[in-house]
């Protein structure tokens, strides 16, 4: 097994980077627009909207939109695992048809839309990755992470909009916020360590990526813990003067204030990455690209044009939004069958929304691009804690719904312990398959425990 990248996505190319094209080779390149052009003297297609130059790694060698090439590139994707996921595309129309034709088959509608979100999110992740290669390094990685987080934001907003007194989805959102971070820190990062460690004794990553990531996660974990700790500490001290209703309102107010502060922290994080320290991260990612064991094949791989990237993003976002809406409408029926709100939010929702992101990170770890893989694990976790969760709280504030950061204390403890465990593994700047296996096993333990955790209507530490 030489590489996890798809051999089907590689095409012949007459030159390596830096070689001079002969007239016959130039003619072949013009006749076959699928082949990317590298290091040519004239590059009118290498400037996006006339604003910035497309890097060689992201150059498609074409302009505009070519349907046949577009479908071929998207179907082949960037790695074997991602290409296999595209086999699930027939579930997308099937899920839409089932929703309208047989809305009474709730389990089938839920299952089909759950599966349909995987290829849709995979296309979104692939298109985001293609677009990121056409941008400056740090901006591209952040944009790719942001696009992947769109799936999560859509799910949160749909759940929040459909939440009511009769069917309260806020516990599902709260569990999904923490579950998303846990899935990235334990399942995704653990799989990256394990898969990458199978081919080598250890992998090395830059301390700037790990230290900034774990530091921000600790701050975010602290911010998410405060409202829960406040409520739990005072819940047993309520009386006629300090009522439970007042405690809940205070916890909600603290949550909203914390959400605003976390958004400020996210803004500072962006400035740090994109402005003040962008050169450091640019050098780190450029060094990682040079270490890519499939770099030559990646440079020769057929790619999407800028316009095709936008088309793919629009198509995938449309499919993701439809599946998310249909999926959320069936959650109450699935919960009624015995699946708790906590298991739904902590395990099921994060697994489907993060599928594409996880495939990308694992592929990078396999190719020894550990800084990229680490950023794709820590970056989404930071974005969930500092952006997505605060946005859900503020959106709930605007909709006059009691969306707060007052989580189940059990889940908050899991989050903080997971951050500490991962931070300890990252401290030496090295990883191996043993650390990866341990992270994944911890996640499995959490999944088993959350299955038996009672629903909020039976027992809860953050509600009256």
From TrEMBL:
Keywords: Antiport, Calcium, Calcium transport, Ion transport, Membrane, Transmembrane, Transmembrane helix, Transport, Vacuole
Membrane topology according to the record: Multi-pass membrane protein
Biological processes annotated in GO: intracellular calcium ion homeostasis
Domain Sodium/calcium exchanger membrane region: 106-273, 310-451
Gene3D superfamilies, per the entry: NCX, central ion-binding region
Function (record text): Has a role in promoting intracellular calcium ion sequestration via the exchange of calcium ions for hydrogen ions across the vacuolar membrane. Involved also in manganese ion homeostasis via its uptake into the vacuole.
NCBIfam families membership: cax
Protein name: Vacuolar calcium ion transporter
Organism the protein comes from: Penicillium atrosanguineum
């Amino acid at each position: 097994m030489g590489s996890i990248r798809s051999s089907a996505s590689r095409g012949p190319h007459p030159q390596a980077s830096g070689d001079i094209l002969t007239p016959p080779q130039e003619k072949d390149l013009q006749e076959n627009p699928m082949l990317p052009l590298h290091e040519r003297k004239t590059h009118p297609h290498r400037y996006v909207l006339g604003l910035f130059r497309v890097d060689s790694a992201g150059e498609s060698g074409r302009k505009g939109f070519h349907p046949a090439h577009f479908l071929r590139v998207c179907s082949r994707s960037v790695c074997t695992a991602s290409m296999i996921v595209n086999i699930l595309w027939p579930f997308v129309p099937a899920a839409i048809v089932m929703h309208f034709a047989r809305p009474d088959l709730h389990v089938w509608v839920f299952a089909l839309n759950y599966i349909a979100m995987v290829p849709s999110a995979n296309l979104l992740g692939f298109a985001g990755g293609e677009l990121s290669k056409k941008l400056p390094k740090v901006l591209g990685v952040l944009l790719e992470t942001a696009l992947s987080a769109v799936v999560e934001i859509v799910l949160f907003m749909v759940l929040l909009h459909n939440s009511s007194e009769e069917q309260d989805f806020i516990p599902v959102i709260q569990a999904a916020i923490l579950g998303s971070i846990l899935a990235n820190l334990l399942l995704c990062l653990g799989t990256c360590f394990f898969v990458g460690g199978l081919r080598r004794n250890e992998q090395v990553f830059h301390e700037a990526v790990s230290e900034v990531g774990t530091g921000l996660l600790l701050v975010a974990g602290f911010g998410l813990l405060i409202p829960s700790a406040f409520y739990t500490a005072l819940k047993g001290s309520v009386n006629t003067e300090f009522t439970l209703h007042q405690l809940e309102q205070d916890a909600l107010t603290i949550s909203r204030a914390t959400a605003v502060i976390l958004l400020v922290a996210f803004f500072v994080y962006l400035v740090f990455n994109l402005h003040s320290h962008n050169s450091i991260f640019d050098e780190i990612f450029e060094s990682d690209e040079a270490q890519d064991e499939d770099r030559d094949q990646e440079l020769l791989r057929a790619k999407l044009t800028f316009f095709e990237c936008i088309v793919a993003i629009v198509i995938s976002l449309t499919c993701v939004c439809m599946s998310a809406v249909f999926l959320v409408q069936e959650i109450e029926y699935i919960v009624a069958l015995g699946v708790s709100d906590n298991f739904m939010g902590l395990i099921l929702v994060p697994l489907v929304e993060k599928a594409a992101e996880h495939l990308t990170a694992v592929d990078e770890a396999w190719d020894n691009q550990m800084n990229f893989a680490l950023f794709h694990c820590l970056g989404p976790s930071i974005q969930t804690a500092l952006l997505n969760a605060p946005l859900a709280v503020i959106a709930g504030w605007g909709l006059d719904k009691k969306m707060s950061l007052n989580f189940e204390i059990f889940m908050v403890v899991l989050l903080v312990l997971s951050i500490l465990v991962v931070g300890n593994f990252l401290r030496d700047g090295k990883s191996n398959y043993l650390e990866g296996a341990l992270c994944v096993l911890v996640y499995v333990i959490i999944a088993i425990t959350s299955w038996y955790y009672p629903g909020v209507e039976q027992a809860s530490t953050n509600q009256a």
